[in-house]
Amino acid sequence: MNIRDTLERHRTIISIVCVIFMLLGLALGVRWMIGPRVTSPGSFADVGQEFYYVLETKQYFVDSINKVPPFKNDKGQEAVRAYYFSCGPCTKGSRFVGYYEKYSDEVKQRIESGAELTSELAGQALVSADGQKWFALDKHESRPITSAARKKCKKDQKLRPCYPE
């Protein structure tokens, strides 16, 4: 018995398997083209928009995720990234700011000059609960700031990040 005879006898099964693989490949291709919404906070991939906060006016706005905070908005005011969270659906009434983020001038310059955003470089971000007092993300002092959002959710609720629509 040769391969040609085997293929001929089982052509229906082989056709079904081929169609399944083609559909799977199509689904994976579409998923790859659409991509994830945001891979992680602090990611500078060109995937959309992010929330920002103007320190001077204490107002929030949405802009490109490619901005490296702090940066000057169109009015010349300093803006930092704002991380929103929710204990349920991410609706305007249920989301809250967990913390703010910016980079030192040195790290910001390295990122803007094309340095790859490694975990070591991202770990040098500065975080703040109020936009006034800043702590290095990779230091012990920042842990209460980044974990405070979890404490706002009840035990049966799951904390989830919120992104602009």
Work out the count of structural domains: 2
**Arithmetic mean of pLDDT:** 79
How far is the N terminus from the C terminus? 60 Å
Order of helices and strands: HHEEEEEHHEEHE
Count of alpha and pi helical runs = 5
Number of strands: 8
Low-pLDDT runs of 5+ residues are 34-46
Which value, in Å, is the CA radius of gyration? 23 Å
The percentage helix is 25-40%
Strand content: 15-25%
Outline type: elongated
Sheet with most strands: 8 strands, antiparallel
Structural class by secondary-structure content = alpha+beta
Structure description:
By secondary structure, the chain is α+β, with helices and mostly antiparallel strands. It has two domains: 3-34; 49-162, no CATH class. The protein has helices spanning 3-9, 11-34, 105-112, 119-122, 143-151, and strands spanning 49-54, 59-64, 71-72, 78-86, 96-102, 126-128, 135-136, 160-162. Strands 1, 2, 3, 4, 5, 6, 7 and 8 form an eight-stranded antiparallel β-sheet that branches. Strand 6 and strand 7 (135-136) form a beta hairpin. The radius of gyration is 23 Å and the shape is elongated. The N and C termini lie far apart (60 Å). Residues 34-46 have low confidence and may be disordered.
